[in-house]
Amino acid sequence: MATSERIGVYPGTFDPITRGHADIIRRGAKLVDRLIIGVTTNPSKNPMFTPHERMEMVRREVAALGVANVEVVGFNALLMKFAEKQGASVIVRGLRAVADFEYEYQMAGMNQQLNARIETVFLMADVCLQPIASKLVKEIALFGGDITNFVSPQVREDVVARVEKLGRLGEY
Hints:
By secondary structure, this protein is α/β, with parallel strands linked by helices. It has one domain (7-166): 3-Layer(aba) Sandwich (Rossmann fold). The chain is built from six helices and five strands; from the N terminus they run E-H-E-H-E-H-E-H-E-H-H. It has a five-stranded parallel beta sheet with strand order 3-2-1-4-5, sandwiched between helices. Strand 1, helix 1 (19-28) and strand 2 form a beta-alpha-beta unit. It starts with 6 loop residues before the first strand and ends in a 6-residue tail after the last helix.
């Protein structure tokens, strides 16, 4: 009996990719034969980095993790259409808090209506990583705070360089 490859998609804006994202990537890669990191656009999130910059950042971070079964693909489409095109049977989503669960639960229900053959799997972020959110990382950096504990050293350099280009939001 032939077995088919189990493909998962972990979608997100990854603006920037955090230690929390890396944790979900590392753990999600163990659940599937191939994990596709879908880097998408979400204009409502006011991105700091372009889609191309985010894809390169995620590729670099994935290479540093040393997980061989992960690839990075950009997309700007309905998630379920992207997942179908990739041949995915699983959507991997990270959860940090109850607020995440409520949103993700609703999205999983809508996605199931669009394609019931693709399951959504939720992974709880590691306890020490639960407070980390890209939005907060950007906000801390824009106000001159230290983001060392939230992102890799290279991502920190990327964010600091971008903040220097954009200018800080305030001084105390």
